[in-house]
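YM 10:42: Muropeptide transport protein sequence, as discussed on the call
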Amino acid sequence: MLDSLKTYHDRRYLSIFLFGITSGFPWIMISSVLSAWLKDEGLSRSAIGLFGAIFAVYSFNFLWSPLIDRVKPRFLGQRRGWIFIMQGGIALCCALMTQLSANSHLFYLALVGLLIAIFSSTQDIAIDGYRIDVIEENDNDGLSAASSVATAGWWTGYGGLGAIPFFIADNSSWYWPDIYGLLALFMLVLMVTTVFAKEPDIDRDLLRSQATGNPAHSNTGATPSKIALWFKQTLVAPFSEFFSRNGVKLALSFLLFIFLFKIGEAFLGRMSIVFYKEIGFSNSDIGTYSKLLNWWVTIIFSLIGGLVNIRYGIYKGLMTAGIAMAASNLMFSLIATTGPDVTLLAAAVIIDGFTAAWSTVAMVAFISLLCNRAFSATQYALMASLSVAGRTLVASSSGFVVDFLDGNWSQFFVITALMVIPSLLFLHNIRHKITHLEKSKTSE
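YM 10:58: structure's back
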């Protein structure tokens, strides 16, 4: 295990960690903070759940992901340039939020939230591509370490920075629109860190030519045949290469598992803030336990999860995380029957933080393992979008499920625990294929 720990002794992981913060932070703006704002304004569970539909953008970002792999901004490079531009868009949207009211501008609130989701999901394409590009090819240990550091960063943005708005809401005269101004300032600071990150040294044209069999550098000019080739290499090649390399049956098996794995966790996550408020926890309780405590737990288990993946492989990491995921949902069911007990909340948050960290690290490493570096951002976006689709499109109905159960939160969380089982059965069936893929990547 000590040998595995040495993998983290690399300055590249600091940039990966900071980009993880950048990736997780926007979810606060359109998830926890927005849900708390809408709940305080008296919106129903169903309406708040429907607001989660804006996360569907993360399910479709693979549609424009080829452009992030192919179009290079005029400054900061292929990866950092896109990240910087999208960060600016998010900061601007937060500034717009300060001028809106949930009662008078509900449509515009949803519209700006949608824009944040578009900018955020686009920056995620570039961030995921950066993480894969900056690690040497066939370095499976490096991929697992990068995945754990990225997960720790994501939860620092979502949990660490995400706790601040709830403390401010309880202990100052600021209301939720005012808090969005502070969120905009945080994003501006993150833009500065992007400038100082090192751009990966990748000859993407050469890698693309090796993957497609087309010349790396063609003569200048814009003939119809060259335009058609550009569109083919940009929009078609990343997806066709993935299916041809793995075979259609195996490729579809991978994609189906990715879709199923986190549906139960997403149902819980979408309604968690509503649940905390209805059961009787204060904003400070939410900030302390759901954000700050969860943040530290997730960072610790993200790093441990990376070490486990390095030592025992991705399959065991995924299976352990899936079993723990179901158990953590049952802990919330217990809280629903006992009421606002902060001791139980702390225990549930610790277990939930472990499962969220462990499962994310294993899944990120698994998806990264499946990517061709010539199309790293595009292929990662394709698979990650399927994971998000299960977590957003389906989970948007979570409020209706709670209403159908007449507000029986205990039954709701039991149902979310049962949702994990199909993915674990499917994971067991493809275990040999995952292990074979890890060994073949290492031996290349």
